[in-house]
């Protein structure tokens, strides 16, 4: 269970261009579920996602992860927690150009100091499960859109994080690839992962297997649907 | 004498270390006044991130000071040929009143940086950064030390005049003259070895007890300091003569020379290592009961004690080897 | 391997891949860096081997030289002084010497002319033994060509060149000319019984100071110069010139440091994005700093090795063509000899501190600034 209590987030605090991205959010996100945050761009869903995923600290309020308060942790411990708890798939996938697929997939494991051969093996397994085994040593700029996304998913899973975070995962995908993505998400769910996504794509929130949808507008929660 | 390449290198390191110390000191004041982990503002986040810079800078200063310490002694040795009466580093350091204080301050800065980095490491183990205030308080105390080191070094090099007749190790480390160095030299070799052996037993006993019972680390730190002092005395009074194979040559610097196979390094490196880690263990044990450190800190302290004891053991072995392989016979 | 080591390895792997991807830029940086190291290393190696050479030459020199001082200048000394000094306890031998300088107007060079002590080296009357610099300066095409010396307008004296020195340890002998005593006194018009100076050897080097003191008391009008005095003067001279060059190199180091700081803080958009991604996928500020330090370390190591090795070749294989005129001296005849290759830890440590420390200092703050960006920056 991830719980947010009266969470606000200010950007550019104390400056003339101060923005309140979140206004007093109270929210519970269940583990062992697929949760979608929906809303128009600028509604604060990405900011909320980054706070849920321990990527940023709220300006005020409290965040707990499985009962432990994480909102007051120093950034370093937040990072330590994040890299073993959350796997990230970004909107623009954010693979590093010039590196091969497998090198990209192994990046989140570098600071953990795991055994190189073991990590590599795990990466190859993940890539094989996502039909990318033959592209492992190819530079990422030669991949197609769908392959790029699957490489990004493999990277999100390399540290065996129990929670997978996806920010606008289908923004750049056609219907066929979107369906493929949803299949992968359901498979992850079946593995026991918790999935949290943001999206303004109806194909996502209407999809089969989505357990909860949280709608946001102007930095506040507009409605919750199960 | 400023226009000597090694001196320029030393002054460069001292200058950069001073800059680092001054900036870190300013930051430390800010931390002491404003540090508040409960504050989730951007300013606090910036302070947290700035601590990473301070840690990195101090690690860099420690490494640079270690290199500078070696260079300082090396260079003093080489410059001996420029001064009438100087045969090795001792003569050069004696050229004016700043030489030996500069050396002691350099050693002091090195130890202070090492201890501070240990505090830093312990602090990072706890999720609430429990030692941050202590750490930056200590840092404020280190700043003047670093500045004094740079100032003394500058004064030392600026006041080096080659027409000064200096006295070297053969005069300084002889029982005939008054002073600490001579008292060290005049302690009988037998007594000195007994004292060293006693300190070794004390270190082993307190270390063993601390590891076994998980307390008494302060006593171990004390034993480490005692061991350090007695080991240096033994180097002057008995170990050096064995290495030189000449009963009246007591210099603790000449053993660093290539003529004696750099044997001094085999003595000093483990000794400094053992002392630094031992004193550090005692310092860290003060914070062992902090809630957020209770899980990881005791293991770090134990490791430090083990490595410290290993360092002293290394020194002991190097001493025994020096005595066993020497052609000089003092006893018997 | 411990997790710490494995983490370092993973970071280093990433750094290597990242360096390889920006080859052009990094090669340029290493090249500029290496030039700075090269200049400084050349000056230091050269000065150090000159110092070594000097000590080697002076090792066989007599411990004490006695000069007669008249009106504050060196004057010819009576040979009887040697006997008096020989009587001081601890002096093994004391001998008068004849030597002087000769200005060769034909080529505009100064030669050192000497009557050798070693009977083997005394040439026949009318002949000289010369250092290799003299035939070179005169442009002798074949061995056996006679040497004509002119002391003043209209004067010409012929000598046969018995042989020339090998240029082994040539710093102080390349301009040397040996004559026998009769020729010398005749050539320089020195009356019999007077000498240039007196040299004494001493049994125990620790007694030199005492002997000098006794001698000064007995012969107050004489000046006593010890071997270590001479050595000190040379050391100081070479140290000072090396230091001067290093101070000049400091300007170069400063320029390089500004360049490096500029480069470290002005990262391209692509590099900034990469670091943003690393932070987003779970790298901490520390990890990014460590990775960047690996980068700085590898660049420094590469530049240091490259600069040191080329400087070594420059000084010891090619005779330091770029610095020799400044460092060697002001005599017209530069000795033509190979410096004995010699590098010690002190020089390397100094060099490393003078080049790597400024580089790290210049890049640390920019590195930290880049590394401490917000992890969620790539999501915005």
List the main descriptive attributes of the protein structure presented here.
A: 226 residues, alpha/beta, Rossmann fold, four-stranded antiparallel β-sheet, 10 strands, globular, C: 380 residues, five-stranded antiparallel β-sheet, 16% strand, elongated, transmembrane helix (chain B), membrane (chain B)
Write the layout of secondary structure elements.
The complex is a heterotrimer of chains A (226), B (332) and C (380).
Chain A lengths: L1 E10 L7 E11 L4 E5 L6 H8 L7 E6 L2 E2 L5 H11 E4 L11 H6 L9 H14 L15 H13 L5 E5 L7 H17 L2 E6 L2 H4 L6 E6 L2 E6 L1
Chain B lengths: L4 H30 L7 H38 L9 H5 L5 H27 L6 H27 L10 H4 L7 H7 L2 H25 L3 H28 L18 H23 L11 H28 L8
Helix pairs in contact in B: 1-2, 1-5, 2-4, 4-5, 4-10, 7-9, 8-9, 8-11, 9-10, 9-11, 10-11
Chain C lengths: L2 H19 L1 H36 L5 E7 L2 E3 L1 E2 L1 H7 L4 E7 L1 E6 L4 E6 L12 E4 L2 H6 L8 E3 L7 E8 L11 E3 L2 H8 L5 E2 L1 E6 L5 H11 L3 E5 H39 L3 H12 L4 H33 L6 H4 L17 H27 L9
Parallel strand pairs in C: 6-10, 7-9
Antiparallel strand pairs in C: 1-2, 1-12, 1-13, 3-11, 4-12, 5-6, 7-10, 8-9
Overview of the structural elements:
The complex is a heterotrimer of chains A (226), B (332) and C (380). Chain A has 226 residues and is an alpha/beta fold. Chain A has a single domain, classed as P-loop containing nucleotide triphosphate hydrolases (Rossmann fold), CATH 3.40.50.300. Chain A has 7 helices and 10 strands. Chain A has helices at 45-52, 75-85, 101-106, 116-129, 145-157, 175-191, 202-205; strands at residues 2-11, 19-29, 34-38, 60-65, 68-69, 86-89, 163-167, 194-199, 212-217, 220-225. In chain A, strand 9 and strand 10 form a beta hairpin. Chain B is mainly alpha-helical. Chain B has 2 domains: 1-168; 173-332, no CATH class. Chain B is built from 11 helices and no strands. Chain B has helices at residues 5-34, 42-79, 89-93, 99-125, 132-158, 169-172, 180-186, 189-213, 217-244, 263-285, 297-324. In chain B, 48% of the residues are buried. Chain C is α+β, with helices and mostly antiparallel strands and 380 residues long. Chain C has helices at residues 3-21, 23-58, 80-86, 133-138, 181-188, 208-218, 227-265, 269-280, 285-317, 324-327, 345-371, and strands at residues 64-70, 73-75, 77-78, 91-97, 99-104, 109-114, 127-130, 147-149, 157-164, 176-178, 194-195, 197-202, 222-226. A 6-stranded mixed sheet of chain C has the order 5-6-10-7-9-8. In chain C, helix 2 (23-58) crosses helix 9, helix 2 runs antiparallel to helix 11 and helix 9 (285-317) packs antiparallel against helix 11 (345-371). Classes of the chains: A alpha/beta (226), B mainly alpha (332), C alpha+beta (380). The interface between A and B is medium-sized, with 13 and 12 residues.
């Amino acid at each position: 269970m991830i719980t947010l209590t009266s969470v606000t987030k200010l950007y550019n605090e104390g400056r003339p261009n101060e923005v309140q991205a979140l206004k007093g959010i109270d929210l519970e996100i269940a583990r062992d579920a697929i949760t979608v945050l929906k809303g128009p761009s600028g509604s604060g869903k990405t900011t909320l996602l980054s706070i849920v995923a321990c990527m940023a600290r709220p300006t005020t309020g409290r965040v707990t992860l499985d009962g432990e308060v994480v909102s007051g942790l120093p950034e370093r411990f937040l990072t330590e927690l994040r890299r073993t708890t959350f796997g990230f798939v970004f909107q623009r996938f954010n693979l590093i150009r010039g590196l091969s697929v497998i090198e990209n997939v192994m990046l989140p494991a570098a600071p953990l100091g795991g055994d190189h051969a073991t990590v590599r093996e795990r990466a190859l397994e993940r890539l094989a499960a996502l039909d990318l085994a033959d592209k492992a040593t190819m530079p990422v700029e030669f991949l197609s859109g769908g392959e790029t996304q699957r490489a990004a998913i493999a990277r999100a899973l390399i540290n065996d994080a129990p929670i997978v975070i996806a920010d606008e995962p289908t923004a750049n995908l056609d219907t066929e690839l979107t369906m493929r993505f949803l299949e992968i998400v359901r498979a992850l769910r079946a593995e026991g992962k918790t999935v949290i996504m943001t999206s303004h794509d109806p194909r996502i929130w209407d999809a089969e297997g989505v357990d909860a949808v949280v709608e946001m507008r102007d930095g506040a929660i507009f409605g919750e649907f199960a | 004498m400023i226009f000597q390449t090694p001196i320029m290198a030393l002054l460069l390191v001292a200058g950069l270390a001073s800059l680092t110390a001054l900036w870190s000191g300013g930051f430390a004041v800010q931390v002491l006044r404003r540090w508040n982990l409960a504050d989730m503002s951007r300013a606090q986040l910036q302070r947290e991130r700035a601590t990473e810079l301070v840690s990195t800078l101090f690690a860099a200063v420690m490494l640079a000071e270690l290199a500078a310490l070696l260079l300082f002694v090396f260079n003093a040795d080489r410059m001996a040929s420029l001064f009438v009466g100087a045969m090795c580093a001792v003569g050069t350091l004696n050229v004016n009143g700043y030489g030996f204080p500069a050396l002691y301050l350099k050693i002091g800065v090195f130890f202070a940086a090492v201890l501070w980095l240990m505090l830093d490491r312990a602090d990072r183990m706890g999720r609430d950064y429990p030692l941050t205030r202590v750490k930056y308080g200590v840092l404020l105390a280190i700043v003047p030390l670093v500045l004094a080191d740079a100032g003394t070094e500058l004064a030392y090099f600026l006041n080096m005049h080659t027409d000064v007749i200096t006295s070297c190790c053969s005069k300084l480390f002889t029982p005939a003259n008054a002073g600490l160095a001579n008292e060290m030299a005049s302690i009988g070799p037998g007594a000195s070895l007994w004292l060293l052996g006693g300190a070794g037993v004390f270190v082993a006993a307190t270390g063993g007890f601390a590891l076994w019972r998980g307390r008494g680390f302060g006593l171990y730190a004390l034993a480490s300091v005692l061991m350090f002092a007695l080991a240096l005395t033994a180097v002057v009074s008995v170990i050096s003569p064995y290495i030189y194979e000449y009963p009246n040559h007591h210099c603790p610097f000449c053993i660093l020379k290539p003529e004696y196979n750099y044997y001094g390094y085999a003595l000093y490196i483990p000794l400094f290592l053992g002392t630094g880690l031992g004193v550090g263990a005692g310092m860290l044990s003060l914070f062992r009961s902090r809630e957020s450190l209770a899980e990881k800190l005791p293991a770090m302290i134990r490791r430090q004690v083990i490595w410290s004891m290993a360092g002293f053991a290394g020194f002991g072995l190097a001493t025994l080897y020096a005595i066993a392989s020497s052609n000089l016979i003092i006893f018997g | 391997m411990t997790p710490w080591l494995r983490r370092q390895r993973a970071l280093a792997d990433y750094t290597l891949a990242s360096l390889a991807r920006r080859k052009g830029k990094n090669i340029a940086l290493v090249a500029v860096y290496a030039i700075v190291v090269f200049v400084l290393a050349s000056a230091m190696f050269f000065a150090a081997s000159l110092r070594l050479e000097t000590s080697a030459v002076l090792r066989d020199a007599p411990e004490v030289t006695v000069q007669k001082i008249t009106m504050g200048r060196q004057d010819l000394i009576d040979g009887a002084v040697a006997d008096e000094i020989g009587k001081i306890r601890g002096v093994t031998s004391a001998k008068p010497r004849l030597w002087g300088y000769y200005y060769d107007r034909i080529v505009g060079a100064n030669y050192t002319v000497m009557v050798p002590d070693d009977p083997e080296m005394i040439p026949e009357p009318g002949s000289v033994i010369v250092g290799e610099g003299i035939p070179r300066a005169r442009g002798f095409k074949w061995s056996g060509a006679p040497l004509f010396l002119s002391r003043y307008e209209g004067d010409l004296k012929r000598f046969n060149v018995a042989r020339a020195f090998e240029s082994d340890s040539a710093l102080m002998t390349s301009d040397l000319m040996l004559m026998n005593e009769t020729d010398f006194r005749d050539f320089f018009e020195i009356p019999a019984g007077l000498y240039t100076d007196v040299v004494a050897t001493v049994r125990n080097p620790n007694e030199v100071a005492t002997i000098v003191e006794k001698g000064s008391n007995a012969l107050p009008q004489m000046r006593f110069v010890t071997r270590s005095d001479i050595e000190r003067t040379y050391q100081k001279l070479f140290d000072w010139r090396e230091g001067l060059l290093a101070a000049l190199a400091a300007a170069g180091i400063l320029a390089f440091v500004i360049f490096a700081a500029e480069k470290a803080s002005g990262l391209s958009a692509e590099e900034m994005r990469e670091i943003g991604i690393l932070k987003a996928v779970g790298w901490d500020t520390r990890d990014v700093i460590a990775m960047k330090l690996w980068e700085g370390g590898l660049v420094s190591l590469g530049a240091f090795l490259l600069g040191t090795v080329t400087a070594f070749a420059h000084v010891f294989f090619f005779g330091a063509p770029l610095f020799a005129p400044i460092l060697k001296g002001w005599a017209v005849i530069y000795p033509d000899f190979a410096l004995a290759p010699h590098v010690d830890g002190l020089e390397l440590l100094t060099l490393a501190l003078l080049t790597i420390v400024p580089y790290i200092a210049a890049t640390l703050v920019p590195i930290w600034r880049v590394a401490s960006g917000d992890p969620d920056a790539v999501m915005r």
